[in-house]
Design a protein that fits this description.
219 residues; alpha/beta; 6 helices; 23% strand; binds 5-O-phosphono-beta-D-ribofuranosylamine
């Protein structure tokens, strides 16, 4: 199967983008990153992608007339690069329903929580405030509603008693960098099938037994 051409859409530092680029350097990885598009000018992610010799484009949302013009400009770049799958990675704009529908089940996002818990922003502080013992990240297909859509893969990390939003964010981000390349690989290798609004994965090896994390000192 030919490697799928992937674009990564970013708005900032691009650490998940960098993880995808690194994974796609491996010869047996089923996707190649052909384009990075930023919705903001001057962000670190663009420099990082350029340093990796990946083609970059800035479609400055602040400088485009409206959302339709912004999306048309993005689409033009995607078409120009022959993109087949789009990955959102710290992309801070809500895409219109028509854009999302055009890319249905070929548009993937990573969100820093175990969805459907903690959609939206400030997920780490909210997880601490809610007292959850497990937090994590989710790779999912995008639907028009924010942080909604069929779940492809999730990784959980413990929430420790001394955690701050910052320390928890760092633990989750390390998990994101491992999870996103795995999630994209499943999509690019055509191992994901959306049934109803859940994802069925083909040829999944046996899963490890369920781990349960109790509150420290619970016994
Ligand atoms: C990540 O935590 C991602 O899950 C969220 O925004 C952050 C982006 O970080 N959507 P980076 O730009 O990938 O470093």
């Amino acid at each position: 199967m030919a490697r799928k051409k992937v674009a990564v859409l970013i708005s900032g530092r691009g650490s998940n983008m960098a993880a995808l680029i690194a994974a796609a350097r491996k010869p047996d990885y089923p996707a190649e990153i052909v384009l990075v598009v930023s919705s903001r000018a001057g962000v670190a992610g663009i420099e990082r992608a350029a340093a990796e010799d990946v083609a970059t484009a800035v479609v400055d949302a602040a400088a485009t007339a409206n959302q339709a013009a912004f999306e048309a400009a993005v689409e033009e770049r995607l078409a120009g690069a022959g993109v087949e799958i789009v990955c959102l990675a710290g992309f801070m704009r809500l895409l219109s329903a028509s854009f999302v529908d055009r890319w249905r089940d070929r548009l993937v996002n990573i969100h820093p929580s175990l969805l459907p818990a903690f959609q939206g922003l400030n997920t780490h502080a909210r997880a601490i405030a809610a007292g959850v013992r497990l937090h994590g990240c989710t790779v999912h297909f995008v639907r028009p509603a924010m942080d909604d859509g069929p779940i492809i893969a999730q990784a959980a990390v413990p929430v420790l008693p001394d955690d701050t939003a910052q320390t928890l964010a760092e633990r989750v981000l390390a998990a994101e960098h491992r999870l996103y390349p795995q999630g994209l690989a499943l999509v690019a290798a055509e191992r994901t099938r959306v049934v109803g609004e859940t994802v069925v994965i083909a040829d999944l090896p046996p899963q490890p037994s369920l781990a349960m994390l109790m509150s420290p000192g619970a016994f």
